[in-house]
User: Fold Xanthine dehydrogenase from Azospirillum argentinense.
Amino acid sequence: MKDDILEQAAGWRAEGRKVALATVVATWGSSPRPVGSQMAVDDAGSMIGSVSGGCIEGAVVHEARKTMEDGEPRMISFGVSNEMAWEVGLACGGRVQVYVEAVE
Assistant:
């Protein structure tokens, strides 16, 4: 699957699209995807791969599009806590940290 994600990202770049790659860099508890899981996003919001099994992909796409706009990588964290009860989180509990970077 990882090769498919990188091949798709390379194809998008070859078509002139901007691309960002999101990679799971840390997990705690019952995170649904292991460290190293990846998702590629193009500037139109298309995506391939997964960093959470559907829990946070929309928020990661949003951050990836911002990264493509400003070129700044981002480290984003998601989880469930009392302070974040109404924000995006993992339905299964646990936490995940995702690094998002533009692909040149």
